[in-house]
Amino acid sequence: MTTPTPYGNESTAAPVEPHRVLVLNSGSSSVKYQLLDMRDRSRLASGLVERIGEETSRLVHTPLTGGGGGAGPRERTGRIADHDAALKAAAEELAADGLGLDSPELAAIGHRVVHGGLKFSAPTVITDEVLKEIERLVPVAPLHNPANITGIRTAQALRPDLPQVAVFDTAFHTTMPESAARYAIDVETADAHRIRRYGFHGTSHAYVSRKTAELLGKAPEDVNVIVLHLGNGASASAVAGGRCVETSMGLTPLEGLVMGTRSGDIDPAVVFHLKRVAGMSTDEVDVLLNKRSGLVGLCGDNDMREIRRRIEEGDEQAALAFDIYIHRLKKYIGAYAAVLGRVDAVAFTAGVGENSAPVREAAIAGLEEFGLAVDAGLNAVRSGEPRLISPEYARVAVAVVPTDEELEIADQAFALVESLRPQGLGQVDN
Ligand code: ADP
């Protein structure tokens, strides 16, 4: 007997409950992907296509627990013309592992979408109207949303029958009160141009704040956490009882902490000064603050490993860059402690937060009055697991909590699709 599934596939075998999710993170010249099995939330494969459109494109595909698992990464080099070709190449690699995207086991494709504005506070099944709204947000996310849209269109063409789910970087921050979200500028101008603080890295802040509560053995509702997401991009958030009440990135990911290549907070008059006095164009200032500032602007390196190595060799420029980075971080910890009133935990995450013991030690040093301390022995332990690094006597827990944005996107996309799916495949032809 032929069994129609809710996704339009036809199968003569026993119906397979769709249980896989493909997560896509599409950048302007790259696509990262992961395929997960949501029955045990294991990763079946992951991959990266970079330098799309150039002669030197590269695809690295890593089979994991599923088909081909343990075989090690495979690489393709040579021009991959566009996102369409990139996704097709990824699909071929997955198919070679027995994980083809045409499989009825695929339940959804989850897309990381950077800017969801105020409208999207939860994962959303992508319809034409949703796609139009993501397009309307391009002026506030000119670098990211166009690439995300391309990724969505490409995936839709590949599997038009499948639910495509957008998971927004901004969604977790939509709970911020107006007092935190509004800039103190003319309200009419702000509203006309949708100028307000949206925040980013929300999927990571949501995941890490929840995991931190779990680590403390408490419900998210009972815990106040300061999350420090320190990657190449970096942001802090204050999460009260599971809800974000403040975050350091604003209209764009430029505001807040010192980052790999971005300045973070700066007097906006610096922009007028650079234009009027230094004769720079708007685009030049944009590039300066987004690409040639932060750690790279201060010392020429944005990789914290390299900066620490230089400091150990006595490099003063690297030491000053590190001090500026830490100073800003401390200011945010103090500010967010004041915003929250009571802090239960400070959680470090992302590339720097998870791996750099010196950054964690320096950021918390001198904050004993706030109940914060780091145990040197615990801080030195290297592990991929969530862990506490504060001494037992400390009033506030300090934790290292590895982030997992792909798992969070897959969880959110799958939960949404499951909630919309008719229960049991046998019932759909009633
Ligand atoms: P993003 O996703 O923003 O590109 P990641 O979260 O992957 O960034 O973080 C990348 C950064 O993490 C690198 O630029 C580097 O500074 C830092 N990093 C990675 N590994 C280590 C390490 N072992 N020690 C210190 N810093 C590290």
Task: Give an account of the 3D structure.
The protein has 430 residues and is an alpha+beta fold. It folds into 2 domains: 17-168, Nucleotidyltransferase, domain 5 (2-Layer Sandwich); 220-405, Nucleotidyltransferase, domain 5, CATH 3.30.420. Helices cover 36% and strands 19% of the residues. The protein is built from 15 helices and 16 strands. It has helices at residues 83-96, 128-136, 145-158, 178-181, 187-192, 202-215, 269-276, 282-291, 294-299, 304-312, 316-340, 350-355, 357-364, 376-380, 405-420; strands spanning 3-4, 10-11, 20-26, 31-37, 42-50, 58-63, 74-77, 106-113, 124-125, 164-168, 224-230, 234-240, 243-247, 345-349, 387-388, 397-400. The strands form 3 sheets. Strands 7-6-5-4-3-8-10-9 form an 8-stranded mixed sheet, with helices on both faces. A 6-stranded mixed sheet has the order 13-12-11-14-16-15, sandwiched between helices. Strands 1-2 form a two-stranded antiparallel ribbon. A hairpin with a 5-residue loop joins strand 1 and strand 2. Helix 1 (83-96) packs across helix 3 (145-158), helix 10 (304-312) crosses helix 11 and helix 11 crosses helix 13. The longest helix has 25 residues, at 316-340. The radius of gyration is 23 Å and the shape is globular. The relative contact order is 0.11. Mean pLDDT is 92; it is low at 1-11 and 424-430.
